[in-house]
């Protein structure tokens, strides 16, 4: 409002000044062209001159504007095309995130044709094609990506390796990743991650073992991920050695190579001890489990301890009964004690441990083993009851010695 008032005041002052000039300085102008003369007041001539100047300037501006019209039109069309390409790109990404692969691919392909920076368009379109199981289109879009961005080969090959890995084409994935390792270096974290996944898919634990040092140092893996991979690799190594002719010494040799922390890892200890039991070295396994259970309590280790048959079963039983002082209500320990007693033919003591264990928790194997023991002892009613309590009659208990005749 204030600006309007000021403008009106200025206009009034200018109008007053013109009126004052016309009244005090009337003057006239005479224009002669050949025999024609034109006479007018000074102020009319000034007004005509001003009008002519404005008209001339306006004409020049219009001519200049018309000459620039093709460039302006082109710029407008370019801007429209860019806006349209961005809209298509966004539409393609939204469709991809929602799982509409065909719709996404079409939008991204159209957007790529209208954009000067279309690498990402082609890469996402390739991923959409992979989701459609269209390998020809995957190859086509990857080739277009190579052409559109010759300096982005690493990015394109990483995308290619990811899709090959997801499709379980492990041999192809391995070839792509090894090329990337040469270009980007061995410590590239994501390429290393892809290589680990590929070797896992190939079950190539020999090469995975060679990568453990790199994985431990890589920023792409957490300490927990490294530990999990190391455990998996060493478990596979132990299983491979257990299949060799001299399995016992081979297992002990591999175990000796592990550090203290790894030897105290429950998963590795259980694998090692179970394999020793399978190849006839239960005595070594029992000693190793005793060493571990002195420091760390683990129900799985205790359960395995009860399954193993050492050369000195009496010593094995006494060692396990020592744990009852602190864990007399542990059902796993009680079950293991029952099994050791069965091997020692301590039938009454075994039955007592079985029954005590089952008071704390249901266990199919324990019910079945106790049912078999009861039948062998001549207690058919108890045997039937224990079979009934077992909720998986197809399962069988551990193969254990049984009494040859009922106890009197």
Automatic annotation (TrEMBL):
Pathway: Porphyrin-containing compound metabolism; protoheme biosynthesis. The chain crosses the membrane at residues 43-64. Its main location: membrane. Keywords: Cell inner membrane, Cell membrane, Membrane, Porphyrin biosynthesis, Transmembrane, Transmembrane helix. It is found in: Cell inner membrane. Residues 27-130 form the HemY N-terminal domain. The keyword Cell inner membrane applies. It is a multi-pass membrane protein. Involved in a late step of protoheme IX synthesis. This is Protein HemY. The gene is hemY.
């Amino acid at each position: 409002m204030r600006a309007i008032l000021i403008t009106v005041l200025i206009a009034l002052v200018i109008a007053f000044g013109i009126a004052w000039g016309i009244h005090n300085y009337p003057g006239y102008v005479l224009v002669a062209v050949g025999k024609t003369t034109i006479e007018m007041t000074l102020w009319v001539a000034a007004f005509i001159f001003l009008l002519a100047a404005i008209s001339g300037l306006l004409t020049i501006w219009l001519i200049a504007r018309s000459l620039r019209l093709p460039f302006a039109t082109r710029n407008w069309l370019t801007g429209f095309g860019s806006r349209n390409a961005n809209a298509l790109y966004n539409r393609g990404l939204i469709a991809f995130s929602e799982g509409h692969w065909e719709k996404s691919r079409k939008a991204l392909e159209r957007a790529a044709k209208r954009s000067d920076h279309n690498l990402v368009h082609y890469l996402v379109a390739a991923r959409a094609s992979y989701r459609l199981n269209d390998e020809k289109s995957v190859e086509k879009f990857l080739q277009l990506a190579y052409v559109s961005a010759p300096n982005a080969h690493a990015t394109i090959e990483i995308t290619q390796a990811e899709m090959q890995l997801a499709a379980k084409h492990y041999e192809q994935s391995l070839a792509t990743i090894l090329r990337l390792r040469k270009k980007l270096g061995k410590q590239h974290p994501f390429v290393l991650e892809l290589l680990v996944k590929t070797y896992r898919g190939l079950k190539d634990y020999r090469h995975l073992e060679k990568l453990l040092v790199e994985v431990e140092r890589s920023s792409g893996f957490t300490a927990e991920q490294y530990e999990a991979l190391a455990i998996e690799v060493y478990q596979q190594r132990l299983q491979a050695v257990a299949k060799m002719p001299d399995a016992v010494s081979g297992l002990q040799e591999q175990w000796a190579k592990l550090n203290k922390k790894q030897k105290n890892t429950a998963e590795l200890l259980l694998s090692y001890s179970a394999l020793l039991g399978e190849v006839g070295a239960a005595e070594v396994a029992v000693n190793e489990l005793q060493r571990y259970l002195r420091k760390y309590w683990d129900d799985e280790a205790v359960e395995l301890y009860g399954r193993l048959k050492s050369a000195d079963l009496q010593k094995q039983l006494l060692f396990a009964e020592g744990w009852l002082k602190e864990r007399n209500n542990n059902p796993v320990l009680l079950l293991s004690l029952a099994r050791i007693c069965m091997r020692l033919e301590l039938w009454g003591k075994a039955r007592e441990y079985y029954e005590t264990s089952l008071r704390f928790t249901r266990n199919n194997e324990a019910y079945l083993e106790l049912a078999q023991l009861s039948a062998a002892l001549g207690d058919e009613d108890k045997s039937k009851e224990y079979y009934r309590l077992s909720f998986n009659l197809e399962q069988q208990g551990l193969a254990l010695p049984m009494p040859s005749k009922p106890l009197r």
